[in-house]
Write a structure and sequence with these properties.
Helix content of chain B: under 10%
Helix content of chain A: under 10%
Order of helices and strands of chain B: EEEEEEEEEEE
Structural class of chain B: mainly beta
Radius of gyration of chain A: 13 Å
Oligomer: heterodimer
Largest sheet of chain A: 6 strands, mixed
Number of strands of chain B: 11
Number of strands of chain A: 11
Largest sheet of chain B: 7 strands, mixed
Strand content of chain B: over 45%
Radius of gyration of chain B: 13 Å
Largest interface: A-B, 24 and 23 residues
Strand content of chain A: over 45%
Shape of chain A: globular
Distance between the termini of chain A: 40 Å
Order of helices and strands of chain A: EEEEEEEEEEE
Number of helices of chain B: 0
Chain lengths: 109, 114
């Protein structure tokens, strides 16, 4: 079974601060997805990374896939209250996805 | 484009009762997934369908859970009898094909077993 460990589990910061959350595994994934889930809703895809070392930017969010395709990070610059939510990573391969337990981010105004 | 629809949104039952959830995936999506998300955890795959065939049900507790996807479109997930530990959000997702990187999730059904 492929496991994904996300850290930290909880993060509470002030508006305007920067943060990084991590997704680590001992397994190699052919692709890795980051989702954001808001209370009462299903996860929504933010980005997919497929190449080792790949960096993708989505406005204030920067996603990086590790060279060995076993880990990933999500960096948010100048966090805003609207960034509050559960950030989930999911590793893909052989037609399946395995989810981590997520990082719950709270951005206080 | 309409998203993944799920109903009901909330359900409260007593243990040992039965319950069923319904999912309508995005039109044209061949693959349908049912996940269980316990509070504080990420989604755990219960069953994956490709059209109306089962691709993976290795984590489905088959003594009490069942799922079907007749005609390869809508799907139902049933729990009978329910246990307290079944309290969770049940998420349905769909993707264009198996192995597609993007899964589109419905809003989920919140189940509370008393």
């Amino acid at each position: 079974t492929q496991l994904l460990e996300q850290s930290p589990q909880f993060l509470s910061i002030q508006e305007g601060e920067n943060l990084t959350v991590y997704c680590n595994s001992s397994s190699v994934f052919s692709s890795l997805q980051w989702y954001r889930q808001e209370p009462g809703e299903g996860p929504v895809l933010l980005v997919t990374v497929v190449t080792g070392g790949e960096v993708k930017k989505l406005k204030r969010l920067t996603f990086q896939f590790g060279d060995a395709r076993k880990d990933s990070s999500l960096h948010i610059t100048a966090a805003q209250p609207g960034d509050t939510g559960l950030y989930l990573c999911a590793g893909g391969g052989a037609g399946k996805s395995t989810f981590g337990d997520g990082t719950t981010l709270t951005v206080k105004p | 484009e309409a998203g993944v629809a799920q109903s009901p949104r909330y359900k409260i039952i007593e243990k040992r009762q039965s319950v069923a959830f319904w999912c309508n995936p995005i039109s044209g999506h061949a693959t349908l997934y049912w996940y269980q998300q316990i509070l504080g955890q990420g989604p755990k795959l219960l069953i994956q369908f490709q059209n109306n065939g089962v691709v993976d049900d290795s984590q489905l507790p088959k003594d009490r859970f069942s799922a079907e996807r007749l005609k390869g479109v809508d799907s139902t997930l049933k729990i009978q009898p329910a246990k307290l530990e079944d309290s969770a959000v049940y998420l349905c997702a769909s993707s264009l094909v198996t192995g597609a990187e993007t899964q589109y999730f419905g809003p989920g059904t919140r189940l509370l077993v008393l």
